[in-house]
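Students often ask why we bother encoding 3D structure as a string. The short answer is that it lets us treat folding as translation between two languages. Here is a chain of 534 residues written in the first language.
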Amino acid sequence: MRLLILEDNKLVSTLQAADGPLTIGSSPSSFVHLNDPRVASHQASVYRDPKGDWWLEICDHDRTTHLNRAVQHGKAKLHHADEIEIAQYCIRLFLEYELTGAALQRKRMQEVAKHHGGSLPLGSIIVKEDRPLSLSREHLEQLTILGMRLERAESTQDLMMTILRSLLRTFSGRQAWIGLRSASHGPFDSSLGWSSKGAACPQPSFSETMQDRCLKDGHFVCTPKSQIPGVGSAMAGPLVRDSGIIGMVYLENGPDDPVFDEATLEVLCAATSCIALPLVDNLQRAAAKRQAVTSTEHTVAQLIQAATTPQALPQWETLQLAAFRHPGAVRCCDLYDVIQLRDKCAAILLARLTAEGAGLPQLFAEVRSAFRMAVLHGDNPLQFVQALNWLIHGGSSPRLADTLCAWLNPTSGEVRFSIAGARVLLGRIHADGTCDMVPNADSQPAGRGQTSSYTLKRMQLNSGDALVMATDGVKTAVNGQGEAFGLSGLKDSLCDGLGDTPSHVLSEFATDLHDFIADGHCADDISVVLGRRE
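And here it is in the second language, the structure alphabet:
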């Protein structure tokens, strides 16, 4: 199998693979190395089963992986020319090279036959959307009535239903279908089909044959005599506005119904002009409403985040602690807390939270309350993480907490900790300036599964050593050139300040981060807790 690696639709490399398994991720050891902070270290793998079939398996469910533009969550069988999409990368798979001679020729002939079978039948009518139109008085009245009905529709779904019913009446159609998209070159975001019997229906298969003509070329297409069983005539047209082609409409009737012809197609051209404007207006208003709701939810989350953030951290004679947070421009997601235990140990919590809408502020309060109750009851970090996983698991929408909980004894330097999730980072900076990070790539966040298992681990801080805890927002912070600040930037900045107080080190780190992203972007919160043992 050959793999073509494309970045932003540009070919960057070609790989030839054996039977696998072939790892895909940002780790340099991956077979397909995608050097991007948005890609997990081991995001997916491709392997071949004993029957010779190739399969895609998703390894990291926190990052999105597409197969042929569909989000994948588990395993999927791969075929020739499939495309795996991760971030801005596209991995195109070619299986043909394994065939030789007559087998390869048959394969290619099958592809040609498949393409020919999906082409428009002979006798199809194709016209451009900017051609002059000639309409009867009756059709003008019908379009006027349609426009009045569209003014009363409130939601996009109401608009689509009104349009479909009107088209079915106007053209005596058997089925009508409409697909809409927010981007002029993207997939459909919403679609609706309706039959003359008053029932919803999926996208008709013949509409896919006309889809490229409508969406890519902006053509109106009519097939007076279809070769599809049960379909007499069919026609389709793009929905065109200044922003581009926002979708398409499709109509079909039965073999015994009146035939769609060029005159009928002209009426469809006029109808799409009538319906495109209110659709765009409705989509824009819906997008503005979603943006307003999102902005309000973000503000509320920030207020709850501020309320759950300690105003001052406890201090010890042999331990200095400091914390820093840089707010994300897109996501408010980080929580930290520090409490002094009864035995004078430091209880430290750092979490990156994921929830939808109003669920995020609630999750902030729940996680902080659960942590403080664990401290009150004398639970260890493992008991807290297990209880938190049970507490937030379930519900109609996912709620996840990548969590790092540590109990630090300032006198002995012993650190007991438990980690849930790969989006929180733990490391130890030695007195000589070196830094060791604790591996946690395979850890599941709290809330992922009710039976997820976690472990209690230990670490020793010697005199002069520092404990660093951070969220992975450093991996998505980029400068004007698109370069990520990354874990290396975090370690370099903190290690350069070795010997200063933690508060001074984090102050310098804040300056380095601000300078780095001055012309760039920081989508997620960045939180760092730094403790140095004297």
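Translate back mentally: The radius of gyration is 29 Å. Keep this in mind for the problem set.
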